[in-house]
Every structure is written in structure tokens, then in C-alpha cells.
Design brief:
Helices cover 29% and strands 28% of the residues. The protein is an alpha+beta fold and 418 residues long. A hairpin with a 2-residue loop joins strand 20 and strand 21 (367-370). It catalyses: 5-phospho-beta-D-ribosylamine + glycine + ATP = N(1)-(5-phospho-beta-D-ribosyl)glycinamide + ADP + phosphate + H(+).
Length: 418
């Protein structure tokens, strides 16, 4: 079969790398792709938001399955257009992707169907939001309602920080239309983890748990990012955690979407936190997480394309996993998640003795250069978090990372709790 992946980041590199190993895949394309993806797929010069171009390409090249990576084309209805043309696509419709595209929608859905999450209120007026924040106190969480590339969340430890975040979003349009409305949430204390499931209607295929690291710097300091590293599995969580998350959260929200006439097909990503009262939802995403996909798919032994097509066709699906732990460390451009320089050389860094998933890279006359905030993810597998982490950090320490930075503590929480 011919497969098309839409996107250009580390998540899409992980998808393409996995698809390239699948014997059922005869031709693999990625639009638009990046320098690393080009090693495994034919990159085509069509952007993620060029709906007409993507559909024409899929028809012309007899694409049997399209997988949409990023959230933006999903929110803009790319899946709907593919389905209207009779093309097989793995990704939610525009209306169903609102579970990520609007945090207010997700919170209202959870409230209606009694799905455990933090208490909240929504605001479009700063004065009303500030009064609520002052009433509640800190710590407290301020979220832009719409899509903000993983940067629209502020976990405020002080009232001053919370008020500043709310003002930045509502009064100063920090994220444009995405922050015209905000969600103000109670702070939840506990262990965070990511639970991605492949969903089609009522069918749910759980993927392995992972733990992401959102803050930019060591010890969970600095601003929120799209993710600075991850590892999988998360063995130190209680054995019943996944089952409880499935029965209390994943299954109820899948059924809720059906009842709301918004049946979900695609990756339902649940960002969860294990509290004293059990798992609760921090956020939902409507696609593969990044960087979780890189460490999770690195462990998946099953053929991904076959698995997805079987799911879409209503067949019974089983997954097989490596027993290894995979640790992934993001190498980011200095300044990220703020302003940063592009086109920084990567040739020396890429000599490190590790597997690299490319996120923001491109080919230039001088070789491969940076083309984004998060540039690479270095991944190593081992029989434990300690073993895999040691490998990846030794590899990175052996090369120059000038113009870039990375966290030195990915996986440390697992080591502290083991």
C-alpha cells in the first residue's frame, strides 16, 4: 500500500520511521517532511494546510492511508475533506478535534459526563478572570482556550504570575484568537503521564504509557514548551493506573463523543495526572503527542500501517511491545520557546552515537541545519530508565551542542521513585 504522512516534526519522523519498517507499505510519502524524514520517505513540497494539494496528491498517487500528524490541519477540517473524497484517513473530523482545539469544550464535555478533571471556570473578560483568580489564590493554572503549539498553559505558583498570564492572554492577545477565551483551572498535585489510544468509533487500542517533560529547563523550571523529552514505559506508576484511566476516562470520553454525535477516529491523547483520588485529566489532544510518539513508537513491534487499517476496517487488533525502556531527549535552539535563530549547523551534533528523530531540520548547501525551536530528539533504548538515559546523555556529551540546549534530567522522576 502507499501511505502519506502529513507534517514535518519529530512526531511525523517517528511515524515515517515506523511505517518504513512495515512490509505492507510499498511507497511512503511525507508532506512536507524534514531532513530526517527524507531518509525514510519521499518528501513532497506540500504544506500541512494546503488542503487541495494534499487531496490531489493522495488521489494521483493511490494513497491507501493518510495519517495527519499536527493539530492545525485537523482543526481546519482536512480529515472531513479526505473523507468526502472517499480517501482513507486516520485523524478526527473538524468537530471531533474540538476536544483539543477548545479547552473550554473539553472541560464542558468532562463536566457533563462526570469525567474526572480539575475544577474550572472560563473567561473572556480580564476583570472577571482577575476577580476569580484573586478569590481562588495560587497555585492555579491559566490556559488559552485554543491551539497554541503547547505553549498556551501557565502553571502559576503565585497570584501575581496568574494575573499576568490572564492579562497577557485576554488583554494583550498573546495567542491571538486562541486566547480570546481562557480556562482558569484548579491546580492538581500528583504524577503526570501521557496515555495515547488509537480510536475508531467504540474501538479503543491503548498504546504504552509515557511521561513527558513540559518545562524548558531542569527541575521543571522555566516556561512551558511543546515538550523537552519523554520516556516509556512509566513503570513506577501503580499497576492499576492504566486500567483505571481506561475505565474512568478513556472509555467514558469516547462514549461521550458518540453521544454528542462527534464520533472520534484517530489518536486520543490524554494528558493525565495521578492524584490521591485517582487519575484526572489535565488535557486532551486529538493527535499523536510530540515527543511521546518518538519514545512510544520506538517500542512498538507491531506493524503500524496494518494496525491502523485493521482498526479502520473494524478488525480485531493486538499490539506487541518491546520490553525495553526508551528515553528521548529534545535538543532545542537557544532561546526556545521564545525567539531563536534558525539555520544553525547540525553536522557535528548528528555524529553522536544515538538515534535522532528530526523535528525542526532542513537540508542546506552546507549540510543539515536547524529549522525550528525543537530541533532533534535523541533516543536510546535500554533495560531501564537509568540504562537508556545513561546512553543518550553520554552520546550527547561527546559532541558539540553550541547554539542548542537540552534538559539533563529526563527520566529522573522515574529514578527517584524506583
Amino acid at each position: 500500500m502507499n501511505v502519506l504522512v502529513v507534517g514535518r516534526g519529530g512526531r511525523e519522523h517517528a511515524l515515517c520511521y515506523k511505517f518504513s519498517k512495515d512490509e505492507a507499505v510499498s511507497k511512503l510519502f511525507c508532506a512536507p517532511g524534514n531532513a530526517g524524514i527524507a531518509e525514510h520517505a519521499e518528501c513532497v513540497n506540500i504544506t500541512e494546510t494546503d488542503q487541495k494539494g494534499l487531496i490531489e496528491f493522495a488521489k494521483k498517487n493511490n494513497i491507501a492511508l493518510t495519517v495527519i500528524g499536527p493539530e492545525q490541519p485537523l482543526a481546519e477540517g482536512l480529515t472531513d475533506l479526505f473523507l468526502a473524497e472517499g480517501l482513507k484517513v486516520f485523524g478526527p473530523t473538524k468537530k471531533a478535534s474540538a476536544i483539543e482545539g477548545s479547552k473550554a469544550f473539553a472541560k464542558e464535555l468532562m463536566k457533563k459526563y462526570n469525567i474526572p478533571t480539575a475544577g474550572y471556570e472560563t473567561f473572556t473578560n480580564y476583570q472577571e478572570a482577575s476577580a476569580y483568580i484573586k478569590k481562588k489564590g495560587a497555585p492555579i493554572v491559566i490556559k488559552a482556550d485554543g491551539l497554541a503549539a503547547g505553549k498556551g498553559v501557565v502553571v502559576a505558583t503565585t497570584e501575581v504570575d496568574a494575573l499576568a498570564a490572564a492579562e497577557d492572554m485576554l488583554e494583550h492577545n498573546r495567542f491571538g484568537r486562541s486566547s480570546a477565551k481562557i480556562v482558569v483551572e484548579d491546580f492538581l498535585d500528583g504524577e503526570e503521564f501521557s496515555f495515547m489510544c488509537l480510536v475508531h468509533g467504540e474501538a479503543i487500542i491503548p498504546l504504552a504509557l509515557a511521561q513527558d517533560h513540559k518545562r524548558a529547563y531542569d527541575n521543571d523550571e522555566g516556561p512551558n514548551t511543546g515538550g523537552m523529552g519523554a520516556y516509556s514505559p512509566v513503570r513506577h506508576l501503580p499497576d492499576e493506573t492504566e486500567e483505571k484511566a481506561m475505565t474512568d476516562i478513556i472509555q467514558p470520553v469516547v462514549q461521550a463523543m458518540i453521544k454528542e454525535d462527534l464520533p472520534f477516529t484517530g489518536v486520543l491523547y490524554a494528558g493525565l495526572i495521578l492524584t490521591e483520588d485517582g487519575p484526572k485529566v489535565i488535557e486532551f489532544n486529538a493527535r499523536f503527542g510530540d515527543p511521546e510518539t518518538q519514545v512510544v513508537l520506538h517500542r512498538l513491534k507491531s506493524d503500524l500501517a496494518t494496525l491502523l487499517l485493521d482498526l479502520l476496517q473494524g478488525k480485531a487488533v493486538k499490539t506487541e511491545w518491546s520490553s525495553d525502556t526508551v528515553v528521548g531527549v529534545v535538543i532545542a535552539s537557544e532561546g526556545y520557546p521564545g525567539e531563536y535563530k534558525k539555520e544553525q549547523p547540525l553536522n557535528d551534533l548528528l555524529k553522536a552515537d544515538t538515534f535522532f528523530y528530526h523535528a525542526g531540520t532542513k537540508k542546506a548547501d552546507t549540510g543539515i541545519v536547524s529549522d525550528g525551536g525543537r530541533v532533534l530528539l535523541a533516543a536510546c533504548a535500554g533495560n531501564s530508565v537509568a540504562a537508556a538515559g545513561k546512553q543518550v546523555y553520554q552520546a550527547l556529551e561527546a559532541v558539540s551542542t553550541d547554539a542548542f540546549f537540552y534538559r539533563k534530567d529526563i527520566g529522573n522522576k522515574a529514578l527517584e521513585r524506583s
